[in-house]
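Hey forum,

I'm writing up a methods section and want to include a predicted complex as supplementary material. The small molecule is S-adenosylmethionine. I've pasted the protein sequence and the SMILES. Can someone with a working setup run it? I'll credit the forum in the acknowledgements.
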Amino acid sequence: MSFTLPPNTLYPQGTKLSDETFQLLRKYIYERTGIFFADNKKYLLESRVGRRLSALRLESFPEYYSALLNGIGAGELPHLINSVTINETFFFRNDPQFIALETLILPELIKKRIEQGNYNIKIWSAASSTGEEPYTIALLIREKFQARYPAVKFEIVGTDINTQVLEVARRGAYKEYSIRNIPRLYMDKYFEPHGDQFILRDEIKKMVRFNQMNLFDRGMMKTMQNFDVVFAANVLIYFDFNSKQVVVSSIYDSLNKGGYFFVGYSETLYGLTQAFKPVHYDKAIAYRKE
Ligand SMILES: C[S@@+](CC[C@H](N)C(=O)[O-])C[C@H]1O[C@@H](n2cnc3c(N)ncnc32)[C@H](O)[C@@H]1O
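Reply by user p_vandermeer:
Happy to help. Structure tokens for the complex are below, copy them as they are.
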């Protein structure tokens, strides 16, 4: 099977995704990722999966679905997931969250750790996409905390289900769109302009480890333990009520007692779980595991 055609090659003209195949494909994706395509998102699935038809030189969506079930499934799943996820992100995306992290949460955690004589602080960007969110955290820690607290070890992990965005994250080269919110100080100190890109310096890249992780996979999620802060921002919106509950419950288990959980600006845990205590900051909410 060939994967060599460019991803934006058009799938055969006139190929339409029927309601029946839409239902089958969305169930297939949902069961493996928790991502739910509502009826009004059919057009999105049609165009995204259409790229896979082109790449595999298949003629129709039912043919693609049969191929998924009969043979190419295991190898094709990552390609399918890479095609259907929405990966929009940028540095300092939700600034009030990072202000709360810098001015209140990290100072509290550092103080606690020093008192306990345990100098590890673990932070997880759980839907990191191309890396802007975990690198924002790394920039803050580098600039504001590392020199002041040399004994404290900050571990930052970025994970995503999409293997392509993780490759981009590891490269650490960004365009104007991604860097538009970065304060001047950080741009001057930690980025190197190169053509139309801005390359993140190695000292920051080295602070973040990237791995693939499916938030909907309870087994995989059990390997993520003892985190002090988890960001799962702008990802719950792609799940339905059931998959949100599964993901949020796994994240709860991944957090230390007293650890903090951030979701996106337009997302909430209200109505999903009462396991966390909401902590209100200026224009931001974190959910604390009591
Ligand atoms: C819109 S981006 C959010 C990026 C960043 N957190 C932010 O707020 O800017 C959503 C990310 O969630 C990832 N994603 C979707 N479903 C996932 C799952 N089941 N497990 C892990 N990541 C998932 C997508 O691949 C995508 O990169």
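Some notes you might quote in the supplement: The chain is about 45% helix and 20% strand. The chain has two domains: 19-84, 95-289.
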